[in-house]
Amino acid sequence: MKALTALLVTVALVTPAFAQNPTLQDLLKKQKGSIVVSATKPVLLHTGKPITANDKKQLLSTVVKTYKTIPRLAGVKVTNTGAAQSAPTSATLTPQMMYTKGLVKAVAYTPAEASPGENLLMFYSGYANSLFFDIDAIPNTAYMLSIQVFAGSSAPQFMVSNSLADGISHGDETFTGVFGNNEFAYLVTSNSQGTIHVSLYSSNATWDFTSCEITATPIN
């Protein structure tokens, strides 16, 4: 019964089309809207300790400065649309709540075990066992994902990417964690409207997704 429950929950965590044709490329291609690649090089922050508010502030400041140096955007005044103004600017995802309308949804690809009622979402190692965050991006906005995971072995290797629709990764960033709880931040920027895909997996460790706090900050 436990195996059956996990199977049903796993199917519920993916889109129907993806469930019928289980390839990572199809998962990305079937997402609605245009694909947005981060306007600046995605930045990963992993200190080996919990990410502090000051860490986030400094990371955001650095990336925003870089964004404003992009030639085609430098000096351009931001005009927010009604849709942009009404979109949520922050959310926290957990295995129990994987979606916030207008901002982000998380999609689990072939998790080893999924039990939202127990707040459990576990993955084996390898790219074929990934967690995707699909961000509803709007122009002139920085998106910071503060992610917490639990690693089941020592020296776990994690990779975070800004994935493209054809399955090719972009802005790959890696870090070596520790056994137990790990926290890191990943920041991308958008200069157009569409979907930003962020993928997460471990190359050598079984791991659990704990939470993801995502914050959208307008760049003025």
Please describe the biggest sheet, giving its number of strands, its sense, and whether it closes into a barrel: 7 strands, antiparallel
Distance between the termini: 53 Å
- The DSSP helix count reads 5
CATH topology category name: Jelly Rolls
- Mean pLDDT across every amino acid position: 82
* Overall tally of domains: 1
Low-confidence stretches: 1-22, 74-83
At the fourth level of CATH, the homologous superfamily is Galactose-binding domain-like
Shape: globular
Q: How many beta-strand elements? A: 13
- Helix/strand structural class: alpha+beta
CATH class: Mainly Beta
Helix content: 10-25%
Strand content: 35-45%
> What is the succession of H and E elements?
HHHEHHEEEEEEEEEEEE
Any idea what the radius of gyration is? 17 Å
- What's the architecture in CATH terms? Sandwich
Index terms:
about 220 residues, Jelly Rolls, 7-stranded antiparallel beta sheet, 6-stranded antiparallel beta sheet, 13 strands, disordered N terminus
Brief characterization of the structure:
This protein is an alpha+beta fold.
